[in-house]
């Protein structure tokens, strides 16, 4: 009795041009190889490649033209000539078609898992994740010390704090601090601490407790970093700034609370419409499936016996989703506009910030937005951003941030692990991570404030703190979207 038909992974050449070759890789049920010496059109691989079949005949395959790919993933490889040792960079494109039995929600994870398996072999070219940062001694410079002070703003930092963080000599740090003081960029506080000098802002008041004011504000805007404060200030008129050295605010007389600043985006390697890029803005919003939370904090992540993770979380949601509803309306309107309102506010903010010489709030060049996929413990590979489908109604415009509505997440354990962060984001629907603002969110709810929203301009693909180049622009983008929401709110009543 002859062999039965069996399912194989079949590679069929489709077409070849002077600068590209197209192969179709698909599961097919094949007849057994021809017997009696007749040549077969297929070559069945063995050994490590068992299960792969190469179709020697380039049959007329038209599936690609008739049915567009359901997903697409591009990446770059470097090829090394064995004869000359010369490196050549080439681009690869994977297009995916799925069986009808696989749901649309499962398709992206299957495609990404296939890609990870494809590039797993040891000889595949790769780079080490964060290799430019991990294990590298950071040089002590005036700019770096100023960066650390601004990152801690409004809280002051001491020489001991800085020395512990990077292992620098205290005397060397003091010399840099003196330079910054002479330039008027920082000032000394009590107990040997230093903080940023806020230029051109005479309304900043440093307080131990939030004051009781005769004319109560209706909106509170909370930022964590200095560049975030500058971005917000460029948007707001008739403002008063109170700096308090804790992470917890007091909101008894405030109706609406905005947490505005930078964050890390969750990339979608295959779906253009779900992909978050640097300079985009994520607004905390419930997932389409429930209204349980807009902000989720991961306390711990433990792997179960079956290999899945159990996440201990705290989930937060404002009792009133009015601000989220305004954001959804703005996003929908922007799909039919060529110039959404927050783009106007970004341009106005840039004009107001033109004298801020320490920070460049302009958008960095698009080519600096590099996307990597984790394929191992510390290995990553650079991939291309997904391209817009022909029928996309919300195509990206240079210099204009796209807004996304999704939960914002945080948690130190998941923020530091690329693959764990992706798993967490997928399970909870998060599209951005920030540097642990859960204590502030808890304080807002503890003070019975019903309306709050977290707005994160995307500065990196971690938690917003890793790539300084994009932080000012991302902060400005977040502040611009904040102003668009505020301007769309109903005016306050006189009572």
TrEMBL record:
<dbReference type="GO" id="GO:0003824">
    <property type="term" value="F:catalytic activity"/>
</dbReference>
<protein>
    <recommendedName>
        <fullName>Winged helix-turn-helix domain-containing protein</fullName>
    </recommendedName>
</protein>
<dbReference type="InterPro" id="IPR055121">
    <property type="entry name" value="HTH_69"/>
</dbReference>
<dbReference type="InterPro" id="IPR035994">
    <property type="entry name" value="Nucleoside_phosphorylase_sf"/>
</dbReference>
<dbReference type="GO" id="GO:0009116">
    <property type="term" value="P:nucleoside metabolic process"/>
</dbReference>
<dbReference type="Pfam" id="PF22979">
    <property type="entry name" value="HTH_69"/>
</dbReference>
<feature type="domain" description="Winged helix-turn-helix">
    <location>
        <begin position="135"/>
        <end position="196"/>
    </location>
</feature>
């Amino acid at each position: 009795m002859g062999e039965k038909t069996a399912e194989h992974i079949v590679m069929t050449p489709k077409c070849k041009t002077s600068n590209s070759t197209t192969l179709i890789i698909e599961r097919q049920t094949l007849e057994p190889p021809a017997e009696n010496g007749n040549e077969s059109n297929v070559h069945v691989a063995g050994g490590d490649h068992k299960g792969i079949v190469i179709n020697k005949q380039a049959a007329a395959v038209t599936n690609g033209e008739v049915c567009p790919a359901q997903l697409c993933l591009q990446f770059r490889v470097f090829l090394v000539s064995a004869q000359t040792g010369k490196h050549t960079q080439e681009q690869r494109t994977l297009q995916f078609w799925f069986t009808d039995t696989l749901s649309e929600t499962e398709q992206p994870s299957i495609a990404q898992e296939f890609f990870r398996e494809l590039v797993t072999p040891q000889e595949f070219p790769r780079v080490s994740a964060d290799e430019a940062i991990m294990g590298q001694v950071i040089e002590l410079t005036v700019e770096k010390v100023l960066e650390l002070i601004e990152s801690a703003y409004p809280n002051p930092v001491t020489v001991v704090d800085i020395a512990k963080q990077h292992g620098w000599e205290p005397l060397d740090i003091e010399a840099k601090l003196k330079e910054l003081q002479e330039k008027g960029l920082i000032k000394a506080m009590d107990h040997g601490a230093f903080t940023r000098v806020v230029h051109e802002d005479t309304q900043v008041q440093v307080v131990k407790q939030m004051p009781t004011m005769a004319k109560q504000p209706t909106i509170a805007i909370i930022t964590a970093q200095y560049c975030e404060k500058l971005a917000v200030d460029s948007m707001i008129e008739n403002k008063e700034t109170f700096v308090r050295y804790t992470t917890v605010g007091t909101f008894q007389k405030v109706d609406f609370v905005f947490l505005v600043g930078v964050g890390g985006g969750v990339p979608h390697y295959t779906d253009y419409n779900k992909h978050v890029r640097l300079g985009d803005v994520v607004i905390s919003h419930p997932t389409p499936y429930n209204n349980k939370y807009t902000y989720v904090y991961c306390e711990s992540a433990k792997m179960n016996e079956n290999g899945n993770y159990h996440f201990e979380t705290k989930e937060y949601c404002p009792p009133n989703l009015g601000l989220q509803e305004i954001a959804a309306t703005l996003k929908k309107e922007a799909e039919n506009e060529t110039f959404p309102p927050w783009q106007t506010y970004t341009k106005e903010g840039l004009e107001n910030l033109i004298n801020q010489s320490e920070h460049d709030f302009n958008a960095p060049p698009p080519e600096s937005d590099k996307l990597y996929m984790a394929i191992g413990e510390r290995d990553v590979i650079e991939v291309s951003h997904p391209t817009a489908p022909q029928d996309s109604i919300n195509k990206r415009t240079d210099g204009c941030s796209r807004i996304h509505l999704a939960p914002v997440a945080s948690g130190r354990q998941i923020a530091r692990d690329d693959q764990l962060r992706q798993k967490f984001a997928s399970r909870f629907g998060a599209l951005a991570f920030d540097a642990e603002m859960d204590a502030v969110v808890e304080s807002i709810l503890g003070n019975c404030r019903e309306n709050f929203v977290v707005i994160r301009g995307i500065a990196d693909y971690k938690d917003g703190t890793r790539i300084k180049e994009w932080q000012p622009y991302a902060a400005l983008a977040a502040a611009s979207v904040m102003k668009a929401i505020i301007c769309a709110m109903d005016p306050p009543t006189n009572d």
